[in-house]
Each structure stands twice: as structure tokens, then as C-alpha cells.
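Input chain follows. Return C-alpha cells only.
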Amino acid sequence: QTQVVESGGGLVQAGGSLRLSCTTSGMIFSMYSMGWYRQAPGKERELVATITSGGRSKYAETVKGRFTISRDNAANTGYLQMNSLKPEDTGVYYCNAERSPTLNFWGKGTLVTVSS
């Protein structure tokens, strides 16, 4: 059974850091692109960062220079290092692993709350 599980969320003060993890099972993780998305209260889900199976990364303009996406294929895990957090970074963060339109898996999310 394929699973994607996020962890590492929590409450942090503005300016602080968190590291999110995305642990996968039931897939050949190295063959999947991975992405982090977030959904703030009352807003639509938005892309935060992506990393291809080859390690190429892209970021939303709002997080460039503060967030870093990475992956450890041997551990079947992806990460999102978040530094200099702002209150507007608050939301539920979701991990997505995609190889094709039919091989596209989402986790249930982890809540990040940044207090001012």
C-alpha cells in the first residue's frame, strides 16, 4: 500500500525554523518528483516547492531564500527546511509524490503555525 506521511509541523515564533519530513512507502521514491504545498485558513492550496527525481528544485517566490526542499532517496523521505518563518507561512503543509497523473499521492498534511 502506498503511503505519504508528513511530520514536523508545530507552533513556532516568527523568525524561527522548522523542518518538515515526508516519509513514503510502497513506491520507488527515487522515481517520483516531490512537492510541498500549503493551505492557509480560508485560502486555496498553493505550491511551496518541488524537487524532481533528478534533484532539480523550484520555489514559490514567497519562500525563495528561506525554504529549502531536499530528498534522501535511500530513506524514501523528502524534507522541507523552513527558516525565517513569518506568520503568513501558517497553514497545513502537504506532501505530494508524483510520477504520472495516475501515480500521484498525497499525505494528510501537517499543521504549521507561526506566531507574531
